[in-house]
Amino acid sequence: MNAQKLSKRLETVAKFVPSGAVVADIGSDHAYLPCYLIHKGIASYAIAGEVVKGPFESAVGQVQKEGLTEKITVRLANGLAAVEAADHVDTVTIAGMGGPLIVSILEKHPEKLEGVTRLILQPNIHAKVIREWALAHNWAIQDEEILEEDDKIYEILVLQRSPMTLTEPEILFGPKLMQRKSPAFIKKWSREKENWQRVLQSIEGADQTPEIEEKRAELVALLDLVEGVL
């Protein structure tokens, strides 16, 4: 992977960036995504935010190497603190982290999202918490994608400002993903179903404490949901 050829995962993130967008890529690592977006003429300007000094320095070096210092600003900052009002950012991308960490980044500096109209979020795990956050903060799911790369399955959520309603299954599985039921979707939830069945089997013979009963009820409910979708 490099600034000209992204991984399948980041290429999918890139395809949801609107033409002419001013993008803030949070946790930008080597700044491959912002460089790609500028090279392809998708974004008009980009901020690459990185909280760790090593990746920050890599991003600075990459932007210089690509000759994009006038189009990409690299900042050493924690999460959305990398965004300044003068940037006029309208699109934020956050990729390659767990869902809870992405939510904590969004919640830490909500004022930084005031001019933002699109969020493109790629959690490695626990996409459900992002859907819960979106519901609570008047962001609607415009699109979703699920893909497999190097035997890992990733979800990508595209959010626009608007209230929405979701059912319990839609929060867990994703409303768009549930409709399409792609091979990656079937594979992910078939694996989860097998894991839940294994755990349920392992606790069936345990002493039935209130904690075990609660866990059993939770697993049975999850299995009911997943069986209704697959």
TrEMBL record:
Alphabetical list of InterPro entries matching this protein: SAM-dependent_MTases_sf (IPR029063), TrmK (IPR006901)
Pfam families on file: TrmK (PF04816)
Gene3D superfamilies per UniProt: 1.10.287.1890, Vaccinia Virus protein VP39
Domain of life, source organism: Bacteria
SUPFAM superfamilies xref list: S-adenosyl-L-methionine-dependent methyltransferases
Protein name listed in UniProt: tRNA (Adenine-N(1))-methyltransferase
Natural source organism: Lysinibacillus agricola
